[in-house]
Amino acid sequence: MYHSLDGTRLPAPVSYHEDAKVPAYLLRHYWWAYVHPKAVKVFDRPWLVNLILLGNYRRLRNAALAEFTGAPLGNVLQVACVYGDLSPALARRAAAQAGMIDVVDALPIQLKNLKWKLPARTPARLLRMDSTDMQLPDGRYDRVLLFFLLHEQPPAERRRTVAEALRVLKPDGKLVIVDYGLPHRCNPLRYLLPPFLKLLEPFALSLMRESVAALLPSGLTINCQSYFGGLYRKVVACRAR
């Protein structure tokens, strides 16, 4: 049996729940990137992840990890697996700072891939769940991370995901979002990138045009940082202590 920092008894560290449904938008729009059996072998390569993010992967990964410091780190939730080494790095940080991490994802193939990437004896659980309906207790986590997930979701699912992330966040917790933003007017990518995103990332443009603050309720302290001429952004939302 697995235990959290507060002594709560938890399920086994890997729980796939094979009867869970895969979201329809994943099957329709992202089968080639995440669902297909060969997708992991093709896309989970450091150089390719960095290429997709136009050379900014390490910078954005480090920007996310910078929000997960201090001991004890507490209970951490990462919503959705990601290609690259972000999750192993976050797991190592949790282990070094007396914390534990849960990672939820709707796809068994992604969870199994992450399982092999995690360091041995990692204080982590991998749980198959839909981000819009996570079967997790209210107010459980000290920090929640959404790393390049929201741009892959239709607006309705995007809002439900943020609502769920806030539901499982502790009253004094921190929500960290790293994703696309709207490039500055002087950034040529503002005009060159949309045709490609429209083809490969059909929901990204709606997120780029939307203030992430609009997805969040009032009463939060929100800090925003932009990167690469505004193309990427980090939003950190904290509840008042």
DSSP helix fraction: 25-40%
Distance between the termini: 33 Å
The largest β sheet comes out as: 8 strands, mixed
Query: At the fourth CATH level, what is the homologous superfamily?
Result: Vaccinia Virus protein VP39
Low-confidence stretches: 1-19
Under the CATH scheme, which class? Alpha Beta
Mean pLDDT: 91
- What count of domains describes the coordinates? 1
Q: Which strand order do you get reading across the main beta sheet?
A: 3-6-5-4-7-8-10-9
SS summary, helix count: 11
Structural class: alpha/beta
Strand content: 15-25%
CATH fold name: Rossmann fold
The geometry reads as: globular
Assigned CATH architecture: 3-Layer(aba) Sandwich
Q: Which series of helices and strands comes N to C?
A: EEEHHHHHEHEHEEHEHHHEE
* Count of distinct strands: 10
Radius of gyration: 17 Å
Description:
The chain has one domain (16-239): Rossmann fold (3-Layer(aba) Sandwich), CATH 3.40.50.150. The protein has eleven helices and ten strands. The longest helix is centred in the C-terminal third of the chain and has 13 residues, at 155-167. A hairpin with a 4-residue loop joins strand 9 and strand 10. It has helices at 24-29, 31-35, 39-43, 46-52, 57-65, 86-96, 108-117, 155-167, 189-192, 194-200, 204-208, and strands spanning 2-3, 9-10, 14-15, 74-79, 99-105, 124-128, 141-147, 169-180, 220-227, 232-239. The strands form two sheets. The protein has an eight-stranded mixed sheet. Strands 1-2 form a two-stranded antiparallel ribbon. It is an alpha/beta fold and 241 residues long. The protein is globular.
